[in-house]
Amino acid sequence: MTSHWTRRTVLGLIAAAPALSLPRIARARGGRVVIIGGGFGGSATARMIKRLAPAIEVTLIARDTSFVCCPGSNTVISGFGRIEDQTVGYGALAKDGIIVVTGRAVTVDTAQRQVHLADGSVLPYDKLVLSPGIGFFWDEVEGVSAATADRIPHAWQAGEQTMLLRRQLEAMPDGGLFVLCAPVGPLRCPPAVGERVSLVAHYFKTAKPKSKIIVLDAKSKFSLQPLFEEAWAALYPGMIEYRLAEDDGIVRAIDPETRAVATDFADEQADVVNFIPRQRAGDIALAAGAADETGWCPVDPATFASTLVPHVHVIGDAAFAPPLPKAAAAAVSVAETCAQAIVHDLTQAEMTEPRWHAGCYSLAAPQHGFEASTDFHLTDGHVVANEATMRRTPEGAPAEDLQAGAEKAELWLRGIMSQVWG
Ligand SMILES: Cc1cc2nc3c(=O)[nH]c(=O)nc-3n(C[C@H](O)[C@H](O)[C@H](O)COP(=O)(O)OP(=O)(O)OC[C@H]3O[C@@H](n4cnc5c(N)ncnc54)[C@H](O)[C@@H]3O)c2cc1C
């Protein structure tokens, strides 16, 4: 990992962050808010509500006692990042007065306003926030299912999946073939596909230089394509073959035992397969009735209230609020709007005009990073990207700018982790 950030610059970045710095503190009346999901969106919302209105009882249901962040996890797969540096706990949230319950929510009784957990406990709520992240459409490709993820990892939720893919790459022979299968959107963090390909290529270049990468992408183009293609030509010439949908990039079958991958016209014998399934909102959002036929949750972007279920808000990747990206940066930004709306409903505190920021950084190598950031606002009930605020690394950027981009990526990650869990 790059180590060019300092405590001072991180603190500066946190101070500059828009979230968790709201104008008016409401202390008058309480209420009970339950939040499902202790990732970026859920944890940020919990802290924000508690800071805005300490009298509100906030309960966060987190699947485990710690959480492993996806941003930065490609560096672990590449071998220059550490999973420990991706992992956070909930101690600071508990200190804020948030009740952190470790467990899995299995159903939501939206009529009685109760969440049922796998251990049989029941949590009543006045307002419920769903931030469960993503689930997968399994069984769309022959041979792959949730049960085969222990051999064919997706690593699109960080933790054990990240380490499984890393171990498989370490065990792969020099001269082996890595096949990455990317789905159609909407998907969590589209630029992370190009980043994953890049950082696996970086590992091969340094440890297994005869190895090859084939990407089978069900889409017709991919996020930050010109920037990644330029980087690959310079950094990893001849190593990466990227097939889009019209170049036979759609995967039809994978044998999880032999790792044979079939498309319409080709069969590839891979050593490691990274199959990323098509995505939807996490299971509990579907169980709560908050998802529509697309698998995502429609919301009113002024409040991130579900348009399908009363007294329920949905944020983070599970919410469908284009053009906001499915990114940690957006989830944390949206947490402010969601928290204000809930505090407003429960205590009549004022709301501010919603504005969001999604700062996105991607690595093509440890010292080669890009930025693609945008601000968003609400116009006539729709989320609109503010073109004037778009910041995107141009093609042909000098090496020092790419180095600065990589340093910013690390700074951003440490800043947002500290902001949400520190
Ligand atoms: C490889 C990769 C790299 C990425 N890089 C970036 C990046 O650089 N910048 C960026 O902005 N974004 C990045 N992202 C995207 C980012 O990880 C997500 O957008 C972000 O995590 C979304 O937050 P969330 O709260 O919706 O979901 P999550 O952060 O995934 O949190 C959801 C939590 O809810 C839990 N949960 C689910 N169901 C239940 C239940 N029933 N009961 C209890 N708990 C439950 C889950 O276990 C999880 O802990 C990346 C993603 C990937 C895959």
Tags for this model:
five-stranded parallel sheet, 422 residues, 26 strands, FAD/NAD(P)-binding domain, alpha/beta, globular, 2 domains, disordered N terminus
Q: Could you explain how this protein is built, in words?
A:
- The protein has 422 residues and is of the alpha/beta class.
- The protein contains ten helices and 26 strands.
- It has a five-stranded parallel sheet with strand order 5-2-1-9-21, with helices on one face.
- The chain is globular and about 60 Å long.
- The chain folds into two domains: 7-135 and 279-353, FAD/NAD(P)-binding domain (3-Layer(bba) Sandwich), CATH 3.50.50.60; 139-275, FAD/NAD(P)-binding domain (3-Layer(bba) Sandwich).
- Flavin-adenine dinucleotide binds next to helix 2, helix 3 and helix 9.
CATH superfamily of the largest domain: FAD/NAD(P)-binding domain
Distance between the termini: 20 Å
Helix percent reads 25-40%
* Associated small molecules: flavin-adenine dinucleotide
Basic shape: globular
Any idea what the radius of gyration is?
21 Å
Write down the CATH class of the largest domain. Alpha Beta
